[in-house]
Amino acid sequence: EKEHEHKGASSSETHKGNAHMQKMQEHMKSMQSQMQAIHGEKDPEKRKELMQAHRKSMHKGMNMMSGMGGGMMGNKHKSANGQGKEHEHGKGQMSPERRADMMEQHMGMMQQMMDQMMQHDDAKHQHSKK
């Protein structure tokens, strides 16, 4: 771990952020495997099932990513009724260096998610042309 990760953020916050990031990375790998299976599948019905499973995974990934943004993207969360609530973090506020690191990781995952969406769309169109 980088030394600056613990400045300003509690170790439990850093651990939670790292754990969430790890889950998201594992989910992205799973989606990549699903896409490989889609490209290798010749049976139209099985391919359709794989496409549906991949779409569900994309939705899950987007939900996971939206959960990542809260502590990193401005400390404002929307509750179930849609009203924003400011969180007072005091000592637990993330250091600018940690925030930049997490932002960079988040942006990389957003790029991977966009790539998965484009591959999904390409696979859908390739299948419909056959």
Task: Considering the chains and any ligands shown, give keywords for the structure.
mainly alpha; 130 residues; two-stranded antiparallel sheet; 3 helices; disordered N terminus
Task: Write up this protein.
The structure is a single chain. By secondary structure, this protein is mainly α. It contains 3 helices and 2 strands. It has helices at residues 11-40, 44-72, 96-129, and strands at 76-78, 84-86. It has a two-stranded antiparallel ribbon. α1 (11-40) runs parallel beside α3 (96-129). The N and C termini lie far apart (49 Å). Mean pLDDT is 76; it is low at 1-8, 70-81 and 83-91.
Query: SSE order in H/E notation?
Result: HHEEH
How confident overall, as mean pLDDT?
76
Q: Bin the strand percentage.
A: under 5%
Structural class assignment: mainly alpha
Main-sheet strand order equals: 1-2
Radius of gyration from the CA trace? 18 Å
Helix content: over 70%
Number of strands: 2
Low-pLDDT runs: 1-8, 70-81, 83-91
Q: Please report the distance between the alpha carbons of the first and last residues.
A: 49 Å
Main β sheet profile: 2 strands, antiparallel
Overall form:
elongated
Count, helices: 3
